[in-house]
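TA notes. Do not distribute before section.
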Amino acid sequence: MGIILYELLMPFRTESERIHQLQNVRCKKFPDEFDKQYPEEKMMADLPKDRPESSDLLMRNLFQCE
């Protein structure tokens, strides 16, 4: 679920850029702009117990409609 959310949040200019970034994300290497914009993002934590529950994610401002 973490990689899917990453794809939704980060724009890709080309397919090659997408592939490169997703390979880096799998190795826990996030672009600086992602870390600055979403510092609390823990969906990619190695241990499932460290990942947020889906109900917690729904409460975040990211998913609130205006």
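Switch to the second chain here.
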Amino acid sequence: MAFRIMQLVPWEILCWTGIRHSPKIWFCWKKSDSGEEVAVSALLGPETFDEEGRFPREALMKICIKKPGLSSILQFDCGVISKGDNGSEFDIRNAYYIESSTHLDFSVYRGPLFSSLDPYLQDELKQYLLARGIGEGLTNFLLHHLHKREQGQYLNWLRKVEAVVTQNE
């Protein structure tokens, strides 16, 4: 799996975890010329329904970016949605400035609501993420991998239920 990610981002992959029974994946990479580190975690969001049925589940993606020599982190909370056969796209829901990765005090002001920012600034922050490898290739991979993992977990659950139900019959 790490090989597929390496094809998606032009940086050195530092770590990857796709714990088999966890619904979440996490990985990070480092830009070799600047030393900048990017960490991404993602999991499937809740199911949503309307009168006609169920919508495909979106992924909830968290991106943290750290510059070398600084203890502060930029954190972006994003949603990733499928565009059907036309790939996927992400939108930024929140952008936070976290002063120190060692002291996460959530009572400290981390920034305004993302939707209240000037639209130009919102676009520039999205371009900032795109320049760091957070693009359609990565979001397509995340959606595919998370849905595939969920299907595997579902089949595993069915096997366990079957084993319990059919035991001693």
